[in-house]
């Protein structure tokens, strides 16, 4: 699909990747990652090849514990010119942490990502959208104090986020400065916002519907922000035993996910969230 004919040429969209293993699924308790097969490196290599072919730079939200276990993967991603941001250390939900524990997760992750890449992360995404103004109002001040410029953890989806939340990025005014909040793409519908920007929704809903949503957001002057996990681009990968619904959300309908991604990259312009924020701040 071509770009929207009236789209502002300066507008960009963003592809974000939550860098974690196939077994880092929220709610799947008691998983012993040490004994499970690791698929991250090969999945990341396949993804990096597709991004290189499309000349697209993406934002990778990396789990600190995974960076410690597989430092070469992080170096490879950064070496190809992509943005490295933080997904926390242990994949704990932010609303399950105390403010001190959250700060500790941020610092441990920033320290290791800084050592590996030479840059401390400027962006954060909480595991499973578990950060919000209602449940963790303190988290935004901590992010700002720790040197973050943006957060991408508030989703305008029912059940897992705020169904009345904004679909376009906004500035959160805090006592000591401002932080950009960048929500993922969703498609409004009569039953509420649909999760077309990533996860099972990106793999399930028709591509023309997803593409129309990007065009619509771009016409409002806002980016379409996509989020994927490496396991979603691994159709033959293993699955954790979970309820049918949870298994579908984590692993279902993966067969054409990579083809969908290629179509998206060919049809629209993409940049990193970090560059997008820089552009907004200098406007
Ligand atoms: Zn995650």
UniProtKB/TrEMBL annotation:
One of its GO terms (biological process) is carbohydrate metabolic process. PROSITE patterns: NODB (PS51677). It comes from the Bacteria. Pfam families: DUF3473, Polysacc_deac_1. One of its GO terms (molecular function) is hydrolase activity, acting on carbon-nitrogen (but not peptide) bonds. Coiled coil: none annotated. Residues 30-283 form the NodB homology domain. Signal peptide: none annotated. This is Polysaccharide deacetylase family protein. The lineage of its organism: Bacteria, Pseudomonadati, Thermodesulfobacteriota, Desulfuromonadia, Geobacterales.
């Amino acid at each position: 699909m071509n770009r929207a004919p009236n789209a502002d040429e300066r507008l960009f969209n963003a592809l974000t990747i939550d860098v974690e293993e196939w077994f880092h699924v929220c709610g799947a308790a008691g998983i012993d990652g040490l004994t499970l097969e690791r698929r991250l490196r090969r999945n990341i290599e396949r993804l990096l090849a597709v991004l290189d072919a499309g000349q697209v730079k993406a934002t990778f939200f990396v789990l600190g514990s995974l960076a410690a276990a597989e430092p070469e993967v992080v170096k490879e991603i950064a070496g190809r010119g992509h943005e490295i941001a933080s997904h926390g250390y242990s994949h704990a939900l932010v609303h399950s942490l105390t403010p001190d524990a959250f700060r500790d997760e941020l610092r441990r992750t920033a320290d290791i990502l800084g050592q590996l890449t030479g840059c401390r992360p400027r962006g954060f995404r909480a595991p499973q959208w578990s950060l919000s103004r209602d449940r963790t109002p303190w988290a935004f001040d901590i992010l700002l104090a720790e040197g973050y410029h943006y957060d991408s953890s508030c989703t305008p989806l029912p059940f897992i986020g705020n169904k009345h939340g904004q679909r376009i990025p906004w500035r959160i005014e805090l006592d000591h400065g401002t932080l950009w909040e960048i929500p993922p793409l969703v498609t409004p519908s009569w039953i509420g916002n649909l999760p077309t920007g990533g996860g099972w929704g990106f793999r399930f809903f028709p591509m023309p519907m997803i593409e129309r949503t990007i065009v619509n957001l771009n016409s409002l002057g806002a980016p379409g922000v996509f989020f994927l996990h490496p396991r979603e681009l691994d159709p033959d990968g293993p699955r954790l035993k979970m309820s049918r619904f949870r298994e579908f959300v984590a692993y279902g309908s993966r067969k054409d996910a990579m083809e969908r991604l290629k179509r998206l990259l060919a049809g629209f312009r993409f940049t990193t969230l970090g560059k997008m924020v820089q552009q907004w701040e200098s406007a």
